[in-house]
Amino acid sequence: MSTAVPYTALTGVYTIDPAHSTIGFSVRHAVIANVRGRFAAFEGLVKLDGTHPTRSEAYLSIQSGSLSTGTPDRDARLLGPDFLDAATYPLMAFRSVALADHGEAQFRMSGYLRIKDVELPLHMDLEFGGAVRDDLGRQRVGFSGTAIVRRSDWGLGWSTLAETGGALVSDKVKLSLDVSAVQPSRADAA
């Protein structure tokens, strides 16, 4: 692992590399199992302040219609009006407002998540995965993170009861991300 790079050397703006990143979720289904999904189309920026890491910022935009759980019928339902309503609300977005350093490469990022034009606070636990120069000589950084949200807070409130009496689809959703972000090289900027 390359976490030995001093934070001060990481100062700068990085773009999230979708080819090497995953934005996903899991939700309890029928009380007994987790269903996982991911979004294939997203973009974002990470502004790192290596001198004062808590001043770092992150911005993420996700295309709602890029959701996939691996089951076309379920995906169609999730993209429809009962859940994401991707035709009406094609983008979801996150913007950070604060970052707390918990030591040993652990952080808590606070910000706002917008889904279906409802913007609410979100707190995500992050782990800094390290930094490395890639094969093109560009600086890369990695982060992983998780957050728990209630889908009903964003108007994703469809629900029905399973035979066992619990919710067929849990209101709690675990968001997860694994991000590789890259700083453009001087050649990229030219």
Helix fraction?
under 10%
Number of domains: 1
Strand content: over 45%
Strand order of the largest sheet: 1-4-5-7-8-9-10-11
Instruction: Supply the number of helical segments.
Output: 2
Query: Biggest sheet, open or closed, and with what strands and sense?
Result: 8 strands, antiparallel, barrel
What's the Cα radius of gyration? Answer: 18 Å
Under CATH, the topology can be stated as Lipocalin
CATH architecture: Beta Barrel
Mean pLDDT: 86
Order of helices and strands: EEEEEEHEEEEEH
Broad CATH class: Mainly Beta
Question: Count of DSSP E strands?
Answer: 11
Per CATH, the superfamily is Lipid/polyisoprenoid-binding, YceI-like
Shape: globular
Q: Calculate the terminal CA-CA distance, rounded to whole Å.
A: 31 Å
Structural class, from helix and strand content?
Answer: mainly beta
Low confidence ranges: none
Overview of this protein structure:
- The protein is mostly beta strands and 190 residues long.
- It has one domain: Lipid/polyisoprenoid-binding, YceI-like (Lipocalin).
- 6% of the residues lie in helices and 53% in strands.
- The chain has helices spanning 72-79, 186-189; strands at residues 12-16, 22-29, 33-39, 42-48, 57-63, 67-68, 91-103, 106-115, 118-133, 139-150, 169-182.
- It has an 8-stranded antiparallel beta barrel.
- Strand 4 (42-48) and strand 5 form a beta hairpin.
- The longest helix has 8 residues, at 72-79.
- It is globular.
- The two termini are 31 Å apart.
- The relative contact order is 0.21.
- The mean pLDDT is 86.
